[in-house]
Amino acid sequence: MMATQTTQDPGIHQLHHDRLLILDFGSQVTQLIARRVRESGVYCEIWPFNQADTARIQAFAPKGIILSGGPASVTEKGSPRAPAALFQMGLPVFGICYGQQTMVAQLGGAVESGHSREFGRAYVAVDENSPLLEGVWNKGAREQVWMSHGDRVTRLPAGFRVVGKSEGAPFAFIADDERRFYGVQFHPEVVHTPHGAALLRNFTHGVCGCRGDWTMAAFREEAIAKIRKQVGREKIICGLSGGVDSSVAAVLLHEAIGDQLVCIYVDTGLMRAGESEQVTQLFRHHYNIPLIHEDASDKFLKALEGTSDPEMKRKLIGTLFIDVFEMVAKRVAGQDGKAAGFLAQGTLYPDVIESVSFTGGPSVTIKSHHNVGGLPERMKLKLVEPLRELFKDEVRALGIELGLHPDFVRRHPFPGPGLAIRIPGEITAEKLEILRKADSVYLEEIRRAGLYDAIWQAFAVLLPVRSVGVMGDARSYDYVCALRAVTSTDGMTAESYPFDHEFLNRVSTRIINEVRGIGRVVYDITSKPPGTIEWE
Fold first, then answer.
1. What domains can be seen in the chain, in order of their start residue?
2. Is 369 noted as a catalytic residue in this protein?
3. pTM score, two decimals?
């Protein structure tokens, strides 16, 4: 998918700005490299190492190349390698962990396996100066880094020198200044390497000469031109979920093509308190964007009757959502006799990256995701995906650039199936109302304490358990409510937020006093992994 877009239809953003290429060898943190590079104002893309032939690299015209880490061992037969021609193109190359090792092996050095493992915090002794260290590390210093390797370089290729070493890696930082080849055994992209982002910036700006002019203001202007060119005078249908991604996409599309855009908001009845009213107010009245609010709450509740299995819930909701969306879309087309030609989706860059993973193998389904992915084939619509080059934090920045209120843009993620997966067991209208009230109290207290922006996601869960209590000298037997709040950078891993007991006591008291039907409140301290952020 990404190969087609890059080779045959280079994005406007690629043509007007310096750009960097990241070749992925399967590291779980490759996306963090891209985020650090983009934070410094440089546009970059991630390609699987085996989808980067010479012609494609030349067409992309990067100012430099970064080789990512990966789980393989360079010493194993058939392990991944960078394209051999890459080292003959005159481009700066920066190898990270496995990227360093394959560069060394391919250029005539040596790597050994299994004799010196380093995982976690380590320290690099800086022996020499380097352009990558300018203004960051000084010769003679000892700097903290994050290591994660079982192999290590044991002999350098001709032309390389040692810049720094660690206890387990005698060639932890190497350089060939004439060819502008650099390699590190540690991971500068993770937050556990305190000055890692500055080292990457020295590579992109100092060594590669990138200007750092890729901003959200520039993206906005260029994306509008790209949308107009792609869509022409055809109509676009956009499915609004009320979340940040679809909302930012809709506002950007409306700025580009005005009333050619029609938004459809399918109200499943599984939304948070006031959510439907907020979406309607924002798009109809504030932005004057044509919006159809389809209240299908009765249909969804009926479809979910008697269903307790979480996967079945997700599939029922996803299927019915597509049916309702398709029905409304046909109604929209019938109003003026002109059918829509495009469907807008809030696809983000991580989705694109994952769709072209070089491994290509099946992965275990932890839980299915609800979206409108089944619509294009059924409705014969062409896709327009204005955010497909952006990470989540960049989408939020674009939302601010477009004038969306910061409180809306910074909203916590909300799952497609909505409150249905925050009510383990059967869904009823009564349970939904109880959960909405508890969730509202919880989030209100979080905002009042000034903690909302410090938390990745916070929500209440209504458990299928009743607990004995005493209220007003009488026995009660009401539901248990679990509170969940986590910190995270990308949702892949998460830790519970460390509320103090005073805060939790205050929230618990309010929920029990104000929400009829809840008699006990607990706080979930499970991290991800082993748990997931949501309960279902």
1. 2-207 (3.40.50.880), 216-409 (3.40.50.620), 428-523 (3.30.300.10)
2. no
3. 0.74
